Amino acid sequence: MMKFRGETRFTALGQDWVLLFDFNALALFEEERGVPALDVIAGLEDEKTPPRITDLRLLLWTGLKRHQPEVTLEQAGDIMSAAPEALLQGINAALPPAPGQGPGKGPGKGKGRARGK
Predict the structure, then answer these.
(1) What is the DSSP secondary structure assignment for residue 36, as one 8-state letter?
(2) How far is residue 68 from each of residues 15, 20, 21, 30, 95, measured CA to CA in Å?
(3) What is the pLDDT of residues 3-42, one digit of tens each?
């Protein structure tokens, strides 16, 4: 099992935020979405099938919840609009890419499942 390695801080909408993709954040994503979080993260680099906007917003929301428990899903969408790079920075802080792999693809990640299934 992989270790989660960190968190990232960023500013958006005039506020400082802390983004943490730990075990609990990924479990919350899976509870809310019903699909494996690591499959969705691995699929972020799939150029043929862009990620679902709702998945991006939900990933950001679950990563924000640890340090900002009051954050809403709508606020997460606003943050995505203001600082879209924060999501991949947070994912890479927690699951750094293996040598030769792009952002969002940590060690041992295969191709994601087809979306909508």
Answers:
(1) -
(2) 11, 10, 13, 19, 21
(3) 566 789 999 999 999 999 999 999 999 999 999 999 999 9
69's CB contacts (< 8 A; 6+ apart) are: none
Largest CA distance in the chain: 38
Which residues, other chains included, contact 1 with Cβ-Cβ below 8 Å and sequence gap of 6+?
none
pLDDT tens, position by position, 38-60: 999 999 988 899 899 999 999 99
**CA dihedral of residues 67, 70, 76, 79 (deg, nearest 10):** -70
In 3D space, the residue among 112, 86, 83, 80 whose CA is nearest the CA of residue 21 turns out to be 86
